[in-house]
Amino acid sequence: MSADWWRDAVIYQVYPRSFADGDGDGTGDLAGVRARLPYLAQLGVDAVWFTPWYVSPLVDGGYDVADYRTVDPAFGTLDEAEKLIEEAAALGLRVIVDIVPNHVSDQHAWFRAALAAGPGSPERELFHFRPGRGPHGELPPNNWPSQFSGPTWTRVPDGEWYLHLFTPQQPDLNWAHPAVRREHEDVLRFWFDRGVAGVRIDSAALLAKDPALADFEEGVDPHPYIDLDELHDIYRSWRTVADGYGAVFVGEVWLPDAERFARYLRPDELHTAFNFSFLACPWEPERLRAGIDATLAEHAPVGAPATWVLCNHDVTRTVTRYGRADTAFDFATKAYGTPTDLALGTRRARAAALLTLALPGSVYVYQGEELGLPEADIPPGRVRDPMHFRSGGTDPGRDGCRVPLPWTADAPWAGFGSTTEPWLPQPADWPDYAVDRQSADPGSLLTLYRTALALRRTEPGFGDGPMDWLPAAPGVLAFHRPYGLLHVTNLSAEPVPLPPHALLLLASGPLTEAGELPPDTSVWLRED
Ligand code: TEU
Question: Is 202 a catalytic residue?
Answer without folding.
Answer: yes
